[in-house]
Amino acid sequence: MTEKEIYDKLETIINTYLPEDVSKNAIQADSDLTKELNINSSHLVDIVLDVEDTFNIALTNEDMEKLHTVKDAIFIIQSKLI
Amino acid sequence: MNKEDIIAQLPYSKPFLFVDLLEKVSENGVIGSYTFRNDEMFYSGHFKDFPITPGVILTECMAQIGLVCLGIFLQNNLISNTENSPSFHFALASSEVEFFKPVYPKEKVLVTSELVYFRFQKLKCNVKMENSKGQLVCKGVLSGMILKE
């Protein structure tokens, strides 16, 4: 799977949990999921669970601690897909 | 961890504690009960001259038994081997509840919660409440976060 394919799928997942006052255009590689996109801790878990289902991978608590930005998520997904 | 320990660790007190007794606790869920007192603070205003337990209080009762009691049990299982258990607090994340029967003062309700998942500190449960006749009072899906200090 290319990075673009991963990004597109991830963007769709994140968009589901964006607060109403944050537009889809705000999702950038550097975006901090909680601090900039205003995703709460509960929806961050929802995103991770959706990522697990979509990419058929499993994330650990350590992965979760490293997950801050969209780029972090792509890196974690890539490392699991190898 | 026994049932009394769990109740002792609840972060609520009067007039906002809605757990009397836990009948069963396991990794998969809890069963607990609460009897609404005649003089609960909200009865004087809900409704005027016609006391009925508010739906938000029934939801709160389901959350305290179904989410927080189970959360304390699961969290303590995770950290049972460490000497100093870190303190944590609870935040309700979402609730979707349907209501079927009214609950009047002095009624006892039984809350049954079944774990859907507990991952990355998020706890999600299917929860139902029954009255003393075994009739379904309300049911729904509740989720909350267990936040470490």
3D structure, described in words:
The complex is a heterodimer of chains A (82) and B (149). Chain A is mainly α. Chain A has one domain: ACP-like (Non-ribosomal Peptide Synthetase Peptidyl Carrier Protein, Chain A, Orthogonal Bundle). Chain A is built from 4 helices and no strands. In chain A, helix 1 (3-16) crosses helix 2 (41-55) and helix 1 (3-16) crosses helix 4 (70-81). The N and C termini of chain A lie close together (10 Å). The mean pLDDT of chain A is 95. Chain B is globular and about 50 Å long. Chain B has one domain: Hotdog Thioesterase (Thiol Ester Dehydrase, Chain A). With 149 residues, chain B is an alpha+beta fold. A 6-stranded antiparallel β-sheet of chain B has the order 1-2-4-5-6-3. Chain B starts with a helix and ends with a strand. In chain B, 20% of the residues lie in helices and 40% in strands. Chain B contains 2 helices and 6 strands, in the order αββαββββ. Classes of the chains: A mainly alpha (82), B alpha+beta (149). Chain A binds chain B through residues 40-42, 44-46, 48-49, 59, 61, 64, and chain B through 91, 93-94, 117, 119-122, 143-145, 147.
Please give the oligomerization state of what you see.
heterodimer
From the coordinates shown, what is the CATH architecture of chain B?
Roll
| SS field, number of helical segments of chain A | 4
Low-confidence stretches of chain B: none
CATH topology of chain B: Thiol Ester Dehydrase, Chain A
Tally of helical runs of chain B? 2
Quote the CATH topology of chain A. Non-ribosomal Peptide Synthetase Peptidyl Carrier Protein, Chain A
- CATH homology superfamily of chain B: Hotdog Thioesterase
Overall mean pLDDT of chain A: 95
Mass-distribution shape of chain A: globular
Category from helices, strands and their pairing of chain A: mainly alpha
Encode the helix/strand succession of chain B as letters.
Answer: HEEHEEEE
Instruction: Give me the count of strands of chain B.
Output: 6
